[in-house]
């Protein structure tokens, strides 16, 4: 399968998997996380990072490959990173996106620690 076909099918499958399947608990989580994403694939990547890193404060995902999904710029700010060296922070994000990274040409990753957030009341 060519990269263009793979990008097209990835976009179609990720856009159909978003939404109601996440449930209300994940919706509460995202109320405290600032997610910046321009399309459903970027949003899916950001949501998976936010779900895995409970202390996420800000996540930005941008396809920098011209829209085909071959390379992403990802910025993550999370309290989960507090006290961790940059290498460990990057390894944590890479582990979350392991399957995606295998399909991508590259990733520009920036991480930083933030202060823990107050819990969300239900």
Structural class category:
alpha/beta
Report the count of strand segments. 4
**Proportion of strand residues:** 15-25%
H-E string: HHEHEEHHE
Integer-rounded radius of gyration: 15 Å
Amino- and carboxy-terminal Cα gap? 45 Å
Count the helices. How many? Answer: 5
How would you briefly describe this protein structure?
44% of the residues lie in helices and 22% in strands.
List the helices and strands and how they pair.
Elements: H1 3-17, H2 23-31, E1 34-36, H3 40-52, E2 56-63, E3 71-78, H4 86-96, H5 98-103, E4 106-113
Parallel strand pairs: 1-2, 3-4
Antiparallel strand pairs: 2-3
What features would you describe in this structure?
With 122 residues, this protein is α/β, with parallel strands linked by helices. Helices cover 44% and strands 22% of the residues. The chain has 5 helices and 4 strands. The protein has helices at 3-17, 23-31, 40-52, 86-96, 98-103, and strands spanning 34-36, 56-63, 71-78, 106-113. It has a 4-stranded mixed β-sheet with strand order 1-2-3-4, covered by helices on one side. Helix 3 links the parallel strand 1 and strand 2 (56-63). The termini are far apart. The model is unreliable at 1-31 (pLDDT under 50).
Keywords:
four-stranded mixed β-sheet, 122 residues, disordered N terminus, 44% helix, 5 helices, globular, alpha/beta
């Amino acid at each position: 399968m060519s990269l263009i076909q793979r990008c097209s099918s990835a976009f179609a499958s990720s856009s159909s998997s978003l939404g109601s399947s996440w449930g209300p608990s994940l919706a509460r989580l995202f109320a405290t996380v600032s997610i910046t994403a321009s399309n459903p694939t970027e949003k899916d990547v950001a949501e998976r990072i936010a779900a895995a890193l409970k202390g996420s404060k800000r996540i930005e995902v941008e396809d920098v490959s011209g829209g085909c999904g071959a390379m992403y710029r990802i910025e993550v700010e999370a309290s989960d990173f507090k006290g961790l060296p940059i290498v460990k922070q990057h390894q944590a994000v890479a582990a979350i996106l392991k399957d995606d990274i295998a399909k991508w040409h590259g990733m520009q990753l920036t991480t930083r620690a933030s202060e823990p957030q107050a819990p969300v009341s239900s």
